[in-house]
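User: I need a structural model of RecBCD enzyme subunit RecD from Leptospira selangorensis for a docking pre-check later this week. Nothing fancy, just the predicted structure tokens so I can convert them on my end. Input:
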Amino acid sequence: MKEESLETILDQEYAGFLTQEFSTYAKEIPYETLFSWNLSLIQASKTGNLAVPFAEKTTISDLLFKKRDNLLYFSKIFNQLTAVEKGFENLLKVDTGTKSEKVQEVLKELIFSNPLSIKRGNKEYILCGEGEQKEALEKALQYQFFVLTGGPGTGKTTVVANVIRGLLRLGYDLKQIGLAAPTGRAAQRLKESLENTISNLRTKNELDDSISEIPTSTLHRLLEYNPRKRNYKYGKNFPLPYRVIILDEVSMVDLHMMFRLMEALPFGVENFRFILLGDPNQLPSVEAGAVLSDLVKSLKKLNSENLIELKTSHRQEEEFSSISKAAELCVKENVSLSEFQENLPKTLGLDTIFPGSRKEDLKGFYQIRLDYKKEWKEFLKRTAEDKILPIFSKLPNPNSPGELKEYLNKDLNRFKILTILRNGIFGSEYINKELTELILHHKKGNLVQIGTKTYFSGLPILITKNDRVRGVYNGDTGLVLEVQTPNGGSELRALFFIEGEIRDFALDTLPPHEPAFAITVHKSQGSEYDSIFIIYPPDPSDLNTEEVSLELFKKEILYTAITRAKRSAFLVSEEKLLEYSLRNRFERLTGFKLV
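Assistant: Understood. Predicted structure tokens for RecBCD enzyme subunit RecD:
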């Protein structure tokens, strides 16, 4: 039985269960009609939609369903949607902006007296000193609610670092500022980026140095989820204890989590500030909704001053220019395959990617052409030998906290394989299995077998399910290392860098996890890597045993994958799926609107 057929059967069973339950409260609606509505909404939610088209004039039960603008919703989803809409509307209504003398004085200090700056050659560049970054800084300090969007290298973190500097000078206390992101890795990256940006101060001072002391957390940690009670500490009746909340990577936030956060915002606190950062061109959230892209579209329609889009990349590395150009073409409307390929360096083959004799890796963005039937196994073998095995000679000393922190924060993210698919021979599961087997042919040392999983020193692992008791979350990446035990022996343990400290766990106590040589593009959101391979499967006509859903191949998934790379990105693809990605977008039916 095909997986899709099984999924359809399960959907129908769940729709039948809901219909039985709902029939008690909606006796006036025929069973077949109720079943049809339930099944449509269940299936729509699986592709991220909040609603389905609904032009019928049938009377519906408000207790179970809601109808608006010819769209039908489950009542629970509709109530969350309207609560989020009203939350944003309230933020906009009370926020008329201020150009007080104090704000102007602070801006002068941030831009002229003691700016963030970088030197290139003999020239000093003032960060946020002009153009769109300066405008963003001014607006962020003038308005209590502010949305800042932009792609990689456009300076979102630079602006936010200056905003925090400004808020401290406007009287906000360090402990009143909450920084968060959807995943642990994204939260850690936010902290690292802020620290790196603050290091560019022309004149060091205690106030600005203190910014590095602000903790960053996941949204779940910010709201203090209680796994035993299955609820959040902070919510409608107990608001968050902050005057400033800054949320990064908002494209990853689904409707439900934004609803939870909106409920917990301290609207009654004087001069409360709410700042959202993100890139609306990235993949939408895994769960239902498209909060950031919906919000940006609505603010544009309102000509709102509360939104600034950063469009200019300031990364100067030569190798990044072709990566940046590829990302730019991804989001361009009506871009053709030929236009995309004309702007890329020449297409490469296996011998060019893995030259063996070359001392330095290629830099920039390249497309790789493979004969999938003949070269796929060889590609994986060469990847293991050329890209992964060398890493094992550079593993950190488990007794050196400094080395461990450096490795977990940086070296662990030097190289990654990103896949569109999870299943099948071109998906992350199979690639991880194959690479693990290839590595074990060369690997010496302690091996541990737990169930079907094999562990060895140097194995990167990815958490796939939240474990709030242990404090590790879906998307967190760790490393298996051999560490000394108190009795003088050694054992393999999993190490993670969590909220500024190294934590280790016994392998048999870990929540669900998997090897992380290859991960899906969805799992890569919030992370950056020096070098990546992006794996597209062969075009559908070339596949004999696997079905590929075209729903996955959209502009956003290609853009998200490409923008994970800092130095080099290699796209393994044929023509048809790549062209399909360039021509189509994720369109989620949400009905979101601000008035």
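Before docking, keep this in mind: The chain is about 40% helix and 20% strand.
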